[in-house]
Specification:
Largest sheet: 6 strands, mixed
Order of helices and strands: EHEHEHEEHEHEEEEEEEE
Number of strands: 14
Strand order of the largest sheet: 3-2-1-12-13-14
Number of helices: 5
Strand content: 25-35%
Helix content: 10-25%
Radius of gyration: 19 Å
Shape: globular
Length: 330
Amino acid sequence: MLDHVSHRVENDDHELLYFWALGDLHFRAEAQWNALHTQRMQPLFQDLQRVWREEEAPMFCVSPGDLVERGSAENYALAKAQLAKHLRDMPFYPGIGNHEFYPENGEMAIHPPEDFTKVWNKPPRYFWLLNGVLCIMLDQPDPWVPEPMKINPVYFSEESLSFLRTTLSQHPHHTAIVFAHCPLHNTVLDRDPVRNLDDDSQDTFFYVENSHEVRAILAEHAHGALYICGHTHSGWGSPNLIFTETLGNHPVTHINLMSPWYTGTRGGPRLDPATNQWEYRPDAPDIQSSFAIRVYRDRAVIRMRHHPTQAWMAEWTVPLQPASSISNNK
């Protein structure tokens, strides 16, 4: 196995939450794509069932956006059916990413957030409370605004910022986790900027342009602890994959979820124009991972699972500002 593995903290006191986070999944019903995708995802889902059976099942799973490659009804139906099959009755919290807006081939209009809500029975932004922890899911803005058919910079709307601020203010005694599709500026970086191996949080469209406003809100609320996102498909070894900074007078840790579908700018599905066939190109190294996260009063323990080898690959322990009073809200 690769290195970067820290010593595991065995102290199990005051555990508040144990959940599993999956990066961008990109389900698509197109036959060739689905065949490659099913083959790629098989080790992930088989290993998740194994580790949950042999060790412990998490309280829920979460995936902050790009669950589908395009926002068509067929792709949503496939994603929902596959996740129901593999996650079974485990609670699942989805987020909306930029790909949920995209039209499938032959469709004439983008998919509005209402399509996401219809499928998952969740609004694009929402929160839930569990064991003294506040979980906030933020919404990805429409990628075609303000200029249609152009890659626009990502700005959280005033409504999203207000939702974040208000929700944090209403639950001051809960350790808070923010989920969003897009990372904040200057968090996860490229493995090799000269060769552009990764999309990263210094590339337009791959970071939140008004990150300073998000950071200002988090700085005002000492219980804001984790910011968990995807979007970049960062490869293994990307600097600041897990990154802790101080905002206000407390630590905030950014967790960038690697996509189990593909990582890096050179990996993933490619359509061969000569044959009109999809082919899959693995990243180097080809790491297929997801993240198990345990939240305590004063720290979070983040473990990365490499599914093809059925092994824990890396672990980080990051500090949290203890909430002054933890209530048992469920």
